[in-house]
Write a structure and sequence with these properties.
- The strands form 3 sheets. The chain has a 3-stranded antiparallel β-sheet with strand order 1-2-3, with helices on one face. Strands 4-5-8 form a 3-stranded antiparallel β-sheet.
- The protein is mainly alpha-helical.
- Helix content is 51%, strand content 9%.
- The protein contains 15 helices and 8 strands.
Length: 378
């Protein structure tokens, strides 16, 4: 501990320098007091609050915030940041602000999962999402030797079965019927945004952030390197994860559709007035100037078209699931599907999007059947 130094003004200056146990960085603080005792008391408080003496003193809330700022804040999009903040709220509501990181064991963690799924009545997929965030934080703490064991091992996920509450995907026939209904629909941004999501399976925030310059007609591709935060900032932002930045292939039917659409868009009065700024025009403009369409507008449009197509209404996110199923049915490689959808990890593609619907099951059953017949004929 440093010795307080008497200053010309008659007060004592105390400097504290310590290595932060979470970040590993050296931190220096200083303050003046009337007595040496006040200096010593302040020094002890600083060291205790900074949690530098032992990993056992680290507070759960403190470490969660440090983990978020260090590993997530600048690498994920606004939607995922909101999910992380919601997870933190559920953690603090259950464990309290005075819970220490080391106090989270498997028993307490399972009770937190039960709290989400039973007491809060969250859908099982929502509970899984919060679990993955908390698990990621605790895994980092384990690898940093701040906790001695992983309390998330062999946890049972509980929650409301929401599988029948919303239709989450489309069969190939339903996708085709919806496509016919949309193509025959009125000319508007929602129409072409819906078609784009149907053909490439991007997230709404990604399609919302597209500019005319992102459509690469020469290479038959679409550049997805940003998203649009239509809820809060009303500005371009980062994609959901770093792996979400990608250049996706543009199917030939979509290329023909967008080529005509972009030509008309560039000839419209709004674009002509902006002259040299054409390259910064939103591909799917909304009613307000310099703001693209909203997710609400897309879903209202989609609901109308589903009714016309004679299928159960779906939200825009279902088009992402349907694209995955279509790629699986087409026999696409898993890595290709992963890159087209923008998942950082192939396991995400398998876990959340490649559902075993009847069409996929039938296709693979027939593949298996033909192979066995070939083997038996040898």
């Amino acid at each position: 501990m440093a010795e307080p130094k008497l200053q010309k003004n008659g007060k004592y200056l105390i400097r504290v320098r310590f290595k932060h146990i979470i970040t590993g960085e050296w931190v220096e603080r200083q303050k003046q007091f009337s007595t040496k005792k006040q200096c010593r008391d302040w020094e002890r408080n600083v060291l205790n609050e900074a949690e530098t003496t032992s990993p056992d003193k680290i507070m759960l809330a403190t470490y969660f915030e440090e983990w978020y700022v260090t590993f997530k804040k600048n690498t994920v999009g606004p939607d995922h940041r909101r999910k992380i903040r919601t997870t933190k709220k559920y953690i603090l509501n259950f464990f309290g602000k005075n819970c220490k990181l080391k106090d989270i064991d498997r028993n307490k963690y399972q009770k937190w999962i039960n709290y989400l799924g039973i007491e809060k009545n969250l859908a099982i997929e929502t509970v899984k999402a919060h679990h993955q965030i908390f698990k990621s934080m605790l895994t980092e703490a384990l690898e940093s030797n701040l906790i001695r064991q992983n309390p998330t091992r062999n946890i049972t996920i509980v929650g409301r079965d929401a599988s029948q509450e919303k239709k989450r995907t489309l069969t190939a026939d339903e996708w085709n019927e919806l496509l016919k209904a949309v193509l025959l629909g009125e000319e508007c941004s929602s129409k072409y945004a819906t078609l784009t999501m149907m053909f490439i399976g991007c997230r709404f925030q990604e399609v919302d952030g597209l500019l005319i310059s992102d459509i690469l007609f020469k290479s038959d591709q679409i550049n997805i390197n940003k998203a649009f935060d239509y809820r809060v900032t009303k500005e371009h932002t980062k994609t959901k994860t770093y792996g979400s930045k990608r250049v996706v292939d543009m199917p030939k039917p979509l290329k023909a559709i967008l080529k005509n659409y972009v030509t008309r868009l560039q000839q419209s009065q709004k674009v002509i007035e902006m002259n040299s700024k054409n390259r910064n025009i939103f591909l799917f403009p909304g009613d307000l100037e310099n703001i693209p369409i909203t997710n609400r507008a897309i879903n209202k449009y989609l609901k109308r078209k589903c009714i016309i197509a004679g299928i159960e209404p779906v939200t825009s996110h279902a088009l992402r699931h349907a694209k995955t199923d279509l790629l699986v049915l087409a026999g696409a490689d898993l890595i290709y599907i992963q890159k087209q959808l923008g998942h950082a990890d192939p396991s995400t593609t398998l876990k959340y999007y490649s559902t075993l619907n009847e069409e996929i099951r039938t296709k693979n059953y027939n593949i298996q059947d033909r192979f066995i017949e070939q083997v038996m004929q040898r």
